[in-house]
User: Fold Cobalamin synthesis protein P47K from Natronococcus jeotgali DSM 18795.
Amino acid sequence: MDPELGRFESEDRRVLAPANDPMPVPVTILCGELGAGKTTLLSRLLESADRDIAVLVNDVGEVNVDADLVEARTDLETGDEVVALENGCICCSLGGELSRAVIRLWKDHEFDHLVVEASGVGEPEPIARQFVRGPAGGPYDLEAVVTVVDARRFHDRFADGEAVPVRQGPNGEGTRPLSDLVLEQVEFCDLLVVNKGDLVSDAERERVVALLEMLQPRAAIETAEYGDLEPEVLLGVERFELETVRDSAGWKRQIEADAGEGEHGTDGNHDCSDGGDPARGGDHTHSDGDHAHPPERYGIEVEGYHRRRPFHPERFAELLRSLPDGLVRAKGLTWIAGREDQAITTSTAGAATTLEVTGRWIASFAEERQETYRRGQPDLVWDEEHGDREVRLALIGRDVDWDALESRLDDCLLSDEEMAADWSDYENPAPTGMGETVTISSADPEAPAR
Ligand SMILES: Nc1nc2c(ncn2[C@@H]2O[C@H](COP(=O)(O)OP(=O)(O)OP(=O)(O)O)[C@@H](O)[C@H]2O)c(=O)[nH]1
Assistant:
């Protein structure tokens, strides 16, 4: 156990809070892909804000250019208030280091607000969780997660369908598709800053905004050039709520609207989720008039797809290699023949789809255990034949022929004859172990699935 964290956890939290300063320090987390303009925006904020702002910068495996830049632009007396974490990503390996650094910062310095600039390849949720459930939640209060979007790149990649590099991570060889991370950052935030407004036309900017509204309907959206926003826009945002932000992504709302109140989540742990849905043979749900998302603009729509039948692994992989250009996002749980235990999350972002084992179907457990899980989830609707195994996806795209996509998805389902046959001989690219991922891209149809 880390000595500092251990001590902190074992002591009364009030020990850390000076008697005359019981208020936790507000925190803003700044996300956005590499080069979106986070540092530019932060530098402006430091120049214009009327309060003392401490900054924690995380660059992955690079010379810490951002920290130097921010430091050079601030009038802080010592410069110590800019803390750099360089040897990893704060969203994963550096969780403990992040907590330690911000607690140390809080003990040693007085400031009114903390901004954490996440690395461009970081997932925002684990960072936010450090301030909500981790030890940093004592002295700090997470105010908002702000995601900066490069309007030009976002338009070309998602609103225009241009093929983009599939993978990018620390040192350029990560395992998550870059587009998936970009959309996760968009989906998990309170405020979206559409930066580089000078590099897009008005019409392109409007398309980007419409798409962002569909992807994260709850977030406020501001457009900017070189991060030129008033400090109040960034710092006066309402309090962050982990569950609210996590559940407000467009794809998730669609799935929940489809499934009705209390439906189980789709982010894994299928064996301990909290709801169910009517066991329908299939319900392609048109979303018109649905309050789960903003009205359709610029041909951008969200759709639901639900079947209680598994995908044929080869046909499904083939579909993922030839997705329609306009499909921006698909996310949800999939049942893939030959993977009877594994609840597999399918996450499409632009051309790249990641399949990840995120849980186990309850139906895959021994009967006694199934009953225990089901007792804990009285709302779970159970299919007599298939239990909780299902395909349930939310699809977001522009100018997509939804009926054609629906029938292509249906063609991927096992036929009645295949349902009765042996599924073990299929060429199956789907992952097997918990947390294991496989990426399939339609930008590079010749590439092997793995
Ligand atoms: N044209 C234009 N360029 C911008 C704008 N905002 C930032 N830039 C430029 O884009 C480049 C990247 O900006 P940064 O602020 O370093 O981006 P970042 O998100 O901090 O990048 P990483 O730290 O690499 O993740 C710099 O050359 C900026 O000058 C803008 O609104 N318009």
Q: What stands out?
A: DSSP finds 15 helices and 13 strands in the chain.
